[in-house]
Amino acid sequence: MVVEGVPADRTLLEVLREDLRLTATKEGCGEGDCGACTVVIAEETHGRLRYRAINSCIRLAHSVDGMAVWTAEDLAAPSGELHPSQEAMVRCHGSQCGFCTPGFVMSLFGLYQNTGGGQGITRERAQADLSGNLCRCTGYRPILDAAQQMGALPLPAGCEVDEAATVAALEHLRRSSGPLPDGRPYLRPDTLRSLLQLRATHPGAQVVAGCTDVGLWVTKQHRRFAQVLDVTGARELRRIERYPNHIAIGAAVSLADAFDALVAERPHLRSFSQRFAGLPVRNSGTLGGNVANGSPIGDSMPLLIALGASVVLMRWKKTRNGGQVAHRELRLEDLYTGYRTNVMRPDEILAWVKVPRPVPGELSRVYKLSKRFDDDISAVCLALNLEIADGIVRRASIGAGGVAAVPSRARRTEASLLGQPWNEDTVMAAMDTLRQEFRPISDMRASASYRQAVLVNLLRRFWLESRGATGINLENLQEVPA
């Protein structure tokens, strides 16, 4: 399907509802929080489709050009028989007012496709995959029941996805789309070289990755962008590269994939990764975009600071022979100069995030406190990474979010730990230092005094957990069957 004349800053939801009249996709919050607007997209990966549930309300329409898109209108068979993701919701009484139901169904459809027809879905997997969908009526139990039961339902004829035909159609679309003029409103080059050249010639274009922040500027601040430069088409930046001492995560890698890579090396990060927004946001947003945005309450930066991450900035440098790629690397905490401001030049792109691999003796944790456990922004985030040998702290790196104008490194607290025995006296002294190191503000998420108290208590929690305490963290509590 071809839709002509779409402005660069028009959202996918607007195109679906207003241009294509596909009104099953609902507009709820307009900020990627409620999931009523959820649709499923798919791209070809190694000859197969990979399905992702995303929020259409904050996703720019041009960003899905060349992808397959499903809405709730696409699921039922021509005969009217329901797809298992829909039928399970009916049988389990998973819908009451119905406004959120299409979004839940689409998240269930994505889960169904990614589990080979809904097979082996645990309660935990269902909760994780539906974390970006909110319902005010049902209490979630029947919806989670539907997630677990849809795999046992028959798939009616006409509901199946012909993956081979879809992959072939996407490949034909890719091959038939010739080179596009550089002056068009939405620029999505397919190589890093082209991306950097376009950034050099269009420094005024709004750079986007997953659109999860810029989409909010469009829907909530009503900002307009005449031209947009999308980094997610550059094939080099869609990779995760592994080296002996670090992994390099390209700026076009989704948050979901980036966290999977981090969790593979540090399994204790899994719970935190699943609390970083809902799955549809993680499927759209990118780690590079989150870092470049630089929000003081962005959750990835404190973690990356604690892990010793660095960023690689790239630009196109003109030379006598035409030009070449220039780059510089700096520690992540040195990227920021103030509230949402940084050292990047107008022609630079944040291209890579480099994260050191774990070392022997490493002890690391990251803690997030928010008003809602899932799908919420932090009030405070604290990440700690210590290297302890023979009972002595040999290295300390601490990142903090929500307590300053920028994601920050707690250097004074680190210094108070270095060379000290890892014991309660050392921790208590470090808590006093941490209490004095930041002067947080009060806002709608938490008061300054609460943030300060929580920050130091999280350091004490880290100490207690390092000594084997398990009952002090809500994430360790297990549900008792009724």
Throw out a few tags for this protein.
alpha+beta; four-stranded antiparallel sheet; Enolase-like, domain 1; Uridine Diphospho-n-acetylenolpyruvylglucosamine Reductase, domain 3; 482 residues; DNA polymerase, domain 1; 3 domains; 16 helices; 20% strand
Overall description:
The protein is globular. It has 16 helices and 17 strands. The strands form five sheets. Strands 7-8-13-9-10 form a five-stranded antiparallel sheet. The protein has a four-stranded antiparallel sheet with strand order 14-15-16-17. With 482 residues, it is an alpha+beta fold. It has three domains: 1-178, [2Fe-2S]-binding domain (DNA polymerase, domain 1), CATH 1.10.150.120; 179-358, Uridine Diphospho-n-acetylenolpyruvylglucosamine Reductase, domain 3, CATH 3.30.465; 360-471, CO dehydrogenase flavoprotein, C-terminal domain (Enolase-like, domain 1, 2-Layer Sandwich), CATH 3.30.390.50. 32% of the residues lie in helices and 20% in strands. The model has no long low-confidence stretch (mean pLDDT 93). The longest helix is centred in the last third of the chain and has 19 residues, at 448-466.
